[in-house]
Amino acid sequence: MRNFYTFMWWLALPLVLGRLWWRGRKEPGYRQHWGERLGMYGARAANDEPATIWVHAVSVGETRAAEPLVDALLKKYPQARIVLTCMTPTGRATGKSLFGKHGARVVQSYLPYDMPLLVARFIRHFEPRVCILMETEVWPNLIVQCQRDKVPVVLANARLSERSLGKAQRFGKVIRDAAQGITLVAAQTEADALRIRALGASKVSVTGSIKFDVVIPQAALATGAQLRQQFGVRPVFLCASTREGEEGLILDAFQAARASLPQDVLLLIVPRHPQRFDEVAAMVTERGLSLQRRSALAAPGARVDPATEVVLGDSMGEMFAYYSACDLAFIGGSLQPLGGQNLIEPAALGKPIIVGEHTFNFAQATEDCLQQGGAVRVPNSDGLMHQAARLLADSAARGAMGAHAQTFANTHRGATARTIALLPDLK
């Protein structure tokens, strides 16, 4: 079965590369560093290069989640370096933003496609002592090649929804063998651990979510304070990490609910994917709503006009700043059956949170936050605006929800230390 899986990879490779080039029309980063995806890295460095820890975080969310773990690894192993792999240009840009301060101690690369020859080239070039996969990344050939080269594989901050379990089980023996080849799993919750064991993994521990250990950058708070000043004293309703199919619903509901919302409310929309910034801007203007873009606010002395109804967050790496600058946050990806996004960051900042019905990617964290009173769930976009109107009109209710959200975030810290304690000896 794995040979068939590999054969299908080779057949699909021209299509995969063609899609990469096509996506590069909107995101030029997809047309860069192609050699890395094919296991080509140039000449090796000198033999005295430091011990290497390999951390793979597929895109933006996993890269941000890896920040506490990477910082802890660099501290515990001061002579080691991290090779951080990803799959997307936005993930790579996030890695540069978060870890550029470490200089040569954090090296970035795209993950090679999951074919034995390419993965073997990667391992020969970097010689990692351990491979740490973040959250849901299980690549059959990568894991087998690591076994052959005696590189322990750790699945850290692991999560697996019922939906993802069903999809994985359809691959049968290929995924089961890969799961059995993982050295250890650090799962976020007991439910995640149960589902991961059902795939065939044997050594599974529950450590909690590393995302709770995130450190809020002071620079982000400063940017948030500056944004808040530019917004003015008006209430700010943030719709964060919105996905395709959601912005139209939000904008229509926003227009329909204007009579119940504060008259001077400012709607701040931050799409999850940067290639959609222009698309969302067009949605706003097509509805006759007045728009300003975050990128235009970077000019000295720029402010949001009092008549502006919508600000588009068309920037990367500023989500903490957006959360800091808002009064109320909706977490995108949850109005449509997309699984939702991480609500820990706004909770850590003490912001009241609204989520939709579809939060299966972060089910336990969302339920815990709801139960502790830090978040409220809505069935649809009309319900979203109803709750927004209620909370924006009641500062006491917002304050209480924000305090509960912050308590929720603070009580779940410590997963990074528990994960580090499980890692095999790298000395």
Could you please describe the fold and organization of this structure?
It is a single chain. The protein is an alpha/beta fold and about 425 residues long. Helix content is about 45%, strand content about 15%. The strands form two sheets. Strands 3-2-1-4-5-6-7 form a seven-stranded parallel β-sheet, with helices on both faces. Helix 9 links the parallel strand 6 (about 185) and strand 7 (about 205). The longest helix has 22 residues, at about 1-25.
Work out the strand percent. 15-25%
Strand segment tally: 14
Query: What is the strand arrangement across the widest sheet?
Result: 3-2-1-4-5-6-7
Low-confidence stretches: none
Helical percent range?
Answer: 40-55%
Oligomer: single chain
* Biggest sheet architecture: 7 strands, parallel
